[in-house]
Amino acid sequence: MRSTAIVAMLFIAAPTALAAQTPGRAAGDTLACTNTPVAVLLERALTAVGITRDGVVLRVETTRARVAQEQSDRTYPPFIMTYGTTRIWYSPRSGAERIESTHVVYPGGSFTGGSTLIGPRAYWAVRDTTTVAASDYAGGAQVRPLNPWAVLHDFATSPGVMSAGRCRYRDYPRFALDRAGPYGSERLLLDVKTYVPVALVRDEPHYLWGQVHVDYVWSNWDRVGSSARYPLMVSRMMDGAPDVSETITAASVLPADSAPPLTLPDTMLAPPATSMVSGD
Fold first, then answer.
1. What's the CA gap between 277 and 280, in Å, rounded?
2. pLDDT at site 15
């Protein structure tokens, strides 16, 4: 009789226990998911790569290769290639990027390039101690995303950045942040574990091919100095095919007074981002 009573009590108590805890879910679990605030994601990304604004600059030495498909004799590989070495100076404080093209080679010749100063919405040719503003932003808009530090600056200082949740990119889940860039909507992807930037993806106009899909991919991040990080490889993919490949040969964080001037001449200047000629 006693065992029968115990079994009866168990059956009576069972509905209460089942209501308190759903099978397959731990106590305290909830299905109400929340997004990490945009400001928090960007701050974590800035911290992950070691960006500070305490009077330092970034200097990067690169070798850049570009596929000149539109200048080749066929529409399929192999294509003409151009190569160049550049020195990049970047100020986290102002967001200004100075690119010094030290040497460019192409089939049939070579030349020493000049210097440009690039901001979030405009860029200037540097001539001795003066700067000359470009009539459009096509060249700057297609070069600036090669630098992930500059991209983080532009997202962190842009109004209206929105979280797009998580998505899968290059085999792993990523945080996705959207904003209105120079060509319209663009998406910044951050690694969900380290918050390191992975890529910037968007559509861009091309003077010959029309609208193209472009991925700026930053990979093989390495330590710079004691706490900063920068990728060893940067790629610009156009419609899934390599367009620009940049190999970083040296990177360092230096005192600001060791760099050339990195102040934007006009922070309000914003010419159109499109051009009838190639911006590369």
1. 9
2. 44
